[in-house]
Amino acid sequence: MRVTAIGCTAVLLLAMTACGGREEAGGTGTTATGECQGQQTTGITDKSLKLGGIYPLSGPASAYGAIPKGIKAYFDFVNAEQNGIGGRKVEFLVRDDGYQPPKAVEEARRLVEQEKVFALFQTLGTPSTTATWDYANQQKVPQVFVATGASTWGTDTAHPWTIGWQPNYVSEARVYAQYLKQEKPEAKVAVLFQNDDFGKDLLGGFKRALEGTQVKIVAEQSYEVTDPSVDPQMSNLAESKADVFLNVTTPKFGSQALAADAKNTSWNPVHIVNNVAASVTVLKPVGFENVQGVVSSTYYKDPNDPTWQSDPEMMRYQAKMKQYAPDADPAVPYHAFGWAVASSFHKAMEAAKCPTREGLRDSVRALGNVQVDMLLPGVTMSTGPDDGFPIESMQLMTFKGERWELFGDVIDTRKEFGPLTG
Prior knowledge:
The chain has 2 domains: about 10-165 and about 305-390, Rossmann fold; about 170-300 and about 395-415, Rossmann fold, CATH 3.40.50.2300. Helix content is about 35%, strand content about 15%. The protein is built from 14 helices and 13 strands. It has a 5-stranded parallel β-sheet, with helices on both faces. Strands 7-6-8-9 form a 4-stranded parallel β-sheet, with helices on both faces. Strands 10, 11, 12 and 13 form a 4-stranded antiparallel β-sheet that branches. Strand 6 (about 190-195), helix 7 and strand 7 (about 215-225) form a beta-alpha-beta unit. It is globular. Keywords: Signal.
């Protein structure tokens, strides 16, 4: 990991005097000094840091409500045992948007204007983030490490205050396309996708990655997040007799699609499920015996994989989750995701030259191969002036027994496929 200044000077940091700047009306700011003078310090003091997250704690994507539990456990651990981040205790406020974009906008306004948060840390979902990033940009509030892999977060230049974290959907799609080109070069693919920016982004990337190959998409079916079931779509896709099924869904519908595939004994395609619906919590209700051989991809360590049993970070995660979130099962991968992204924020905040909104905005766009211990070996965070994608490496995995098993090498999609451009 590259070494960067944490504050304006070492002396100032040791003295706990922040190099902040402009305090907005009603906010709690730090003292303006040095090169950071005039920058926004709402929501941050010498002793505290307030963040706000927006998640679907209810509604069709409520499985993702596990993520903030992992985040809060990490921040509680850091607050109690490491004196916070840079001496600042982190307060993490969580709001529920029910996976409804208008509600996400309402909650973003409440967090920024009433709660006076320093930053929006994690807005889950492509629709919700799309609905709120204009507001974050207008208010000049960092909207960092959003929980969505839409490629637009890294290619857009009009919203410098918003940035993703996880591998983008186009890069993920490229990994699946490469897998098929190698393993089933004449595959016929049926696709189920969520009818919004998320589903269209991954499907579009998959189609582009297949250009010039013999792999063909022979059937497509979309669904709405308000649909009660995807059974009708699955019946239609089964009629295609495709030998590969690409499952581009969020958890609720991913589980339904996996169950429908298992019930239809006359159709037995290779089943690829996208990462955001690949948690064991999605597969378990279907019955592990019914999801053997399903393929997906990942970039962070699975707490169910014995490979990491003696891994120092996994051991720390397991212990601290039990200590600071005793009601949350450490085996749930979404908790590990939350721990990993919170740790990533910790690294980015420490690297900020100024403990200001502008400092965080600049820090997340200047990450130089930053190592985060909950990420897979070989996966680091890197960004730059022409690269707004912190993580672009993934590894394929297949479900065996009662857990995912990694196979192949970590794929750096930057090197394998070239950078994404707007």
